[in-house]
Amino acid sequence: MIEIKDLWYTYPGRSEPTLKGINLRVEKGEFVLLTGPTGCGKSTLLKTLNGIIPHESGGIFSGSVKIKGMETTESNQIEISKEVGLVFQNPDDQIFSTTVEDEVAFGPENLCFERKEIDRKVEEALKIVGMSGHRLASTNSLSGGQKQRICIASMLAMAPEVLAMDEPVSQMDPRGTHEVLNTVRELNRKLKTTILLVEHRLHELAPFVDRIVIMDEGKIVFDQPASKAFDHLEVFYRLGLRIPEPVELCHSLGIKASPLSVSGALALLDTEDFRKNINIFQPSPNPEKSTVVIKNSSRKPSTENNNSENNNSENNNSENNNSENNNSENNNSENNNSENNNSENNNSENNNSENNNSENNNSENNNSENNNSENNNSENNGYENNDCKNNRSSIVSIQDLWSGYEKNKMVLKGINLEINKGERVAIMGTNGSGKSTLLLHLAAILKPDKGSVKVFEEDTRSKNPYSFAGKVGFVFQNPDLMLFCDSAEEEARFGPVQLKYSNIEERVKNSLEAMSILPFRYDLPQALSRGQRLRTAVASVISINPELILLDEPTTGQDRMNIEQMMDFFKNNNSTLIFCTHDIEVAMSYATRILVMNDGKIIADGKGKEVIKDTESLRKASLTQPPVVEIANHLGINAFSVKELVKTLTSRSAEGIKC
Ligand SMILES: Nc1ncnc2c1ncn2[C@@H]1O[C@H](COP(=O)(O)OP(=O)(O)OP(=O)(O)O)[C@@H](O)[C@H]1O
Ligand SMILES: Nc1ncnc2c1ncn2[C@@H]1O[C@H](COP(=O)(O)OP(=O)(O)OP(=O)(O)O)[C@@H](O)[C@H]1O
Fold first, then answer.
1. What is the predicted ipTM?
2. Is residue 102 classed exposed, middle or buried when 0-12, 13-18 and 19+ CB atoms within 10 A define those classes?
3. Residue ranges in 192-285 assigned as alpha helix (H)
């Protein structure tokens, strides 16, 4: 279906080629996942499939791209697009109709189907992506994830033979992602649709695909069936790519297999061979009834063991504080002790570099007070303990907030929320549940219909977004809405210049460096990959060093290395962070608190380790537990990361053997 031979491509204005001798063959009916570090050329390769490159892009193109034998350079785009449906990386680049119905009907109309048939196709496609109820909605009124669903529906309605999808589910909630991928997989099987899908969330997508292809620096460097791909973990580690937790767990335990699912991992853990070696537990389908059997040990299972596990994990923390701070696995909220230490260190460093800035000095003084109070209460880490909470300065205070975009159609329905200085709060929940809307209120971009929002003790109703310039930084879900300068470095310079800060060049350099954008500092932002553009937008905010940072899905479209680098930066930074995410693993690793939203309400609020156990709220909010937590539950073990689970299992094993 797809045959690419020795493909080289250089964008206009670039001296270096982006694609460097690509050879790839995809058979009819194959479902291929294409992944690789941000900026390696994945989107560029997809754009050659439907002829956007070189027909619209210009640039220097050589080699051959054939779809069903049709050479794309020799065919016109209308012909090619009958065969290849492309789901764009940025839904705003794809959607152009004013209503959902028109958008999805556009393809079938152009293929000249009968009216009745078009209606049926639109209905069917909207049903698949869970958007039937939005058929008559305006496309402008959709949330980010809802827009992605519409983009997928538009392509499904045309039923092309080749489907090229560029991060089609990056902004979708986990359950939506699962449901849509299941259906896409069914169609792929039933209709023999050939699918080439680009995604960084390969840990979630791997179970759906036949084959995994990895690119690096414009070349294909890896190509394996999905069932075997993770036998070569070194490649994934080297390129900073994510790995399914069941695979990581089994490899860490020395099991030579790469299960892609929880059930696959449990089956392996339940084998005679493995139990003979570790011999510590009996997996049970019901976590409540799980028993832990320690060889030759008189220690009793059930609750006692759970306690001992808690003890273990606390011990782990103290170990982690010393040696493993750089490892994201250990970044659970119990590590906050070490985090606080880190951030204090940073504060003192910052004090040195930013003495000239009176605003920052104020906030830093507050921090040091704050840190003192945190130190006095090292166990509670702040937000959970009411005494401590009262001692800390409140940054956000929301009382009974009701808000909507249209009259009589409330999106936020009675939000009450207090956020204190220094917290890192993740907001999670179903697409369209109101997460972005809530963030827009915190930046005073939206105003309450009822109730009140106070930021830094100021009622947002009497403020405009500029009132908080320098104190509140906001990165939109779509970074393209905030990039308007001629280079990445100009983007990072803009804020500090406007705010007349000192040490501007140092701020620019540090922020670009922190987001790995320094090598592209002179590039036009529009000539960067999406991951690079998003990090440029983040750099343009952190160069201001605001006290409150609001990030709307900052890790979408980033590889593992960049996610860790970005989130480690915020972890070690003294600002208060509120970020929306659909990535439960990121939230668990980096947030001190998780809010779960559904239908405009906060339905759960607590430490990651508490929220993750509230399966009813997770279900309502279309969230799922991370695979490692599911596996631990089945084993009756209290663990929240691969490292914690491995440590518990192996320390028990050692104990069992010793006994
Ligand atoms: N329009 C353009 N003009 C010039 N260079 C570009 C353009 N678009 C992309 N590039 C460059 O080509 C390289 C590959 O970009 P591409 O978008 O294909 O990467 P990607 O692998 O899809 O990244 P991501 O995972 O971040 O989406 C990047 O270094 C980028 O700077
Ligand atoms: N400009 C707008 N006009 C009208 N309705 C809107 C507008 N923006 C958002 N909405 C509606 O408000 C609801 C909440 O949208 P919001 O973007 O806050 O959701 P979200 O939880 O951030 O979703 P996602 O996870 O998809 O980003 C959605 O039903 C959406 O359709």
1. 0.96
2. middle
3. 202-205, 226-229, 233-238, 245-252, 262-269, 272-277
Distance CA 214, CA 236 (A): 9
In 368-508, at which residue ranges do the beta strands (DSSP E only) sit?
A: 394-406, 409-420, 424-429, 450-455, 458-459, 472-475
Q: Which helix (H) or strand (E) holds 488?
A: helix 488-498
Find out whether the beta carbon of 531 lies less than 6 Å from any atom of ligand 1. Answer: yes
Instruction: For ligand 2, atom 6, name the residue with the nearest CA.
Output: 141
Instruction: Tell me how crowded residue 449 is: count the other CB atoms within 10 A of its CB.
Output: 13
| Residue 490 alpha carbon to ligand 1 centre in Å | 19
Strands 394-406 and 472-475: unpaired
Check if 259 has its Cβ closer than 6 Å to any atom of ligand 1.
Answer: no
Rounded Cα gap, residues 643 and 640, in angstroms: 8
By three-state DSSP, how is residue 596 classified?
A: strand
Least confident of 13-27, 303-317, 609-623: 303-317
Instruction: Evaluate if residue 170 carries a pLDDT over 60.
Output: yes
User: In the predicted model, what is the mean pLDDT of residues 412-421?
Assistant: 96
Distance of alpha carbon 616 from alpha carbon 613, whole angstroms:
9
Two structure tokens written together for 179: 């449901």
- DSSP letter at 210 equals S
> Average pLDDT, whole number, for the chain?
82
For residue 97, what are its two tokens?
Answer: 């109709």
Q: State mean pLDDT over 182-204.
A: 89
Highest mean pLDDT (candidates 72-86, 362-376, 435-449, 630-644): 435-449
d(CA 146, CA 185): 20
The set of long-range contacts for 462-466, using a CB threshold of 8 Å and a minimum separation of 24, is: none
Q: Give the model confidence (pLDDT) of 267-277 as tens digits.
A: 888 766 666 65
- Cα 461 to middle of ligand 2, angstroms: 21
Distance 109 CA to ligand 1 centre (A): 32
Question: What domains appear along the chain, each with residue ranges and CATH number?
Answer: 2-243 (3.40.50.300), 247-290+626-659 (no CATH)
For 354-434, where are the alpha helices, taking DSSP H only? Answer: 358-376, 386-391
| pLDDT confidence of residue 274 | 64
| Secondary structure string (H, E, C) spanning 498-516 | HCCCCCHHHHHHHHHHHCC
The packing angle between helices 100-110 and 115-128, to 10°, is: 130
What residues have CB less than 8 Å from 340, skipping those under 6 apart? 371, 374, 375, 378, 381
What residues have CB less than 8 Å from 263, skipping those under 6 apart? none
Ligand 1 neighbour 11 (Cβ under 6 A): yes
* Residue showing tokens 């394996």: 224
406: Cα separation from own chain's centroid: 29
Pocket lining: 18 vs ligand 1, CB cutoff 6 Å:
yes
Question: pLDDT for 119-150, tens place per residue?
Answer: 999 999 999 888 999 999 999 999 888 999 99
User: Which one of 175, 436, 476, 581 would you pick to mutate in the ligand 2 pocket, going by the greatest count of ligand atoms within 8 A of its CB?
Assistant: 436
Which amino acid belongs to residue 498? Q
Bridge partners of 583, per DSSP, are none
